[in-house]
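Handout, page 2. Input:
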Amino acid sequence: MEMTRQKLMQLLNELIEECHTRGIEGTIAIYGGTAMVYYVPELRTTQDVDSMFRPFSEIQSAAEVVGNRNNAPNNWLNMQIHDVMPPIGDDNPEVKIDLGMTFRFLI
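Output:
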């Protein structure tokens, strides 16, 4: 499933709402194609959201609910980049904080 910036932001906003409803507070660092689409919307689309997030199981569960609601693949939000990226840093200036969730978009 190709996802445009509009679709990605819709999914992420719904994820924020789902996490808020469940009382989840956490951090999601977003990498790769999604970060590029965030910064340069006309550049391209992406297949999934390469990310690192915590708390893992709680956010993963919320993401599955959001994905099911939107007919997105089960792994639309994934941590496949985990093996090649360093831990989530706290020094990136591009941060979106909303309802207890912190997002970092890293290229």
